[in-house]
Amino acid sequence: MAAKGTDSKSGNLSALPNVSAASAKKLVAAKIDSVAKLAKSSTASLQKAGLSEAISSKAIAAAKAATKVKSVAKKTTTKAKAAAKKAPAKAKAVAKKAPAKAKKAATAAKSSAKKTTTKAKNAAKATPKKISKVAKASVSKVKKAAKEAGRKGGVIKVPKNVDQFDWMKRLKKR
Question: Where does the pLDDT of residue 9 fall: very low under 50, low under 70, confident under 90, or very high at 90 and above?
Fold first, then answer.
């Protein structure tokens, strides 16, 4: 049984990068049987266990990284569980605030609608004035053009067929 336990401990250590199965067995024999113990140990103690200086420093670095990852994962799990516990209370608080927010949004929409209606009414009032100004300007331009043309009177001769138009007469003369 003890040998089987030793194998599983060395298996945990050999899962780390730069730690072979033989190195893991040497570490377990030196009573460094967990990743946390490996992260806390020094290169000198690993060299006493039979590892080279380069491998011992790489193994310690890998163990520290694995320990850090494990602690971060643990913290994240704890935070997630706490957030899951708080979620129903937060949902209730939000649900209580929702009618007030909806009322505020409705009030804002109503005031916006009033402003838009007022703008539309003002624009509708201003439109006839603008149209009359444009029409008066057009009439004055037409009168001015008529004076410049030298035409007097209100009767205009309208040709009865196409042959009587000036442009048609000019075409026929060519």
Answer: low
Identify the top-confidence range among 28-32, 69-73, 116-120. Answer: 28-32
Max distance between CA atoms of the chain, in angstroms, equals 129
Q: Is 10 exposed, middle or buried (0-12, 13-18, 19+ CB in 10 A)?
A: buried
Cα–Cα distance, 111 to 100 (Å, whole number): 17
Place of tokens 């409705």: 106
Task: State the Cα–Cα distance between residues 87 and 95, nearest whole angstrom.
Answer: 12
Cβ-based neighbour number of residue 115 at 10 Å: 10
Provide the total of helices (H) and of strands (E) in the chain, helices listed first: 6, 0
The distance in angstroms from the start CA to the end CA of the chain is: 124
Gap between the Cα atoms of 146 and 158, Å rounded: 17
Entry pTM: 0.44
CA angle in degrees (0–180, nearest 5) for 115-116-120:
120
